[in-house]
Design brief:
Layout (H helix, E strand, L loop, with lengths): L11 H14 L2 H60 L3
Helix pairs in contact: 1-2
């Protein structure tokens, strides 16, 4: 992997906070790399969640229709079962 130098401009307050946290990572560069990886992973995760939510919204009508069909079938079976029970199995 080729590393490239990037110049980042940030306010002093942010730089001070980065410098404090950077001690845990060994350098500013390592700290900023990890922060960017985290940000990009979160963004990817959020995009995936949104796509899943969109899929669920698109499938909602079909899922409801299938569930209602299943309930109607189950109700019909239940009626037959109850009739058999009431008639004593005849």
């Amino acid at each position: 992997m080729i590393n490239r130098r990037v110049v980042v401009i940030m306010p002093d307050t942010l730089l001070k906070a980065v410098d404090e946290v950077s001690q845990e990572y060994g350098s500013r560069s390592a700290c900023i790399r990890e922060a960017l990886k985290y940000l990009l992973e979160r963004r990817l995760l959020e995009e995936r969640r949104e796509k899943m939510a969109e899929g669920y919204r698109k499938m909602a009508r079909l899922n409801q229709e299938l569930a209602e069909e299943g309930l109607a079938d189950a109700a019909g079976c239940m009626d037959k079962y109850l009739q058999i029970l009431v008639s004593g199995g005849k």
